[in-house]
Amino acid sequence: METATASLAALTPERAEILARQPGVLSLDSVREISDEVARILSRHRGTLSLNGLTSLSTIACGRLAAHRGNLLLDGLKTLSADQATALSRHLDWLNLDGVSELCDEAVTALAHHQGIVSLAGLRKASPSALAKLRRQPQFRLRPAKENSARCRDFP
Fold this sequence. Notes:
Blueprint: E1 2-4, H1 13-20, E2 25-27, H2 36-42, E3 49-50, H3 59-66, E4 72-73, H4 82-88, E5 95-96, H5 105-111, E6 118-119, E7 125-126, H6 128-136, E8 140-141, E9 147-148, E10 153-154
Parallel strand pairs: 1-2, 2-3, 3-4, 4-5, 5-6, 6-8
Antiparallel strand pairs: 7-10, 9-10
């Protein structure tokens, strides 16, 4: 069963409590921001949690969402700091970060500790050492590299 909220832009803790109890896929892609408290509440949901409309998250919210049991889709995030990556690396299931286009070495090192699949299909730039680390880890899903530069590996 899928619960979708097509027009919900903001999410109160009270509404999050109700939605988190819904079984199956919880698609909240229209939500543009969540508080740390809402992240804590949503982490109780069991099943796929899709928050692809989020373009930013606090490090605390990342840590709270990492406690979620089920697939976690955060494709709206364009950047990810090392601290955010460390927090999200504690998540145990599939983690979609397909909107992230560039990762620093520290973020890659943190995500390498993730136990489930990490999808980084939107990744365009990473240092050669970070790219090598990503390619050695079987849990990472990347686009194939096309070009090289002296500082970064560029993706198609």
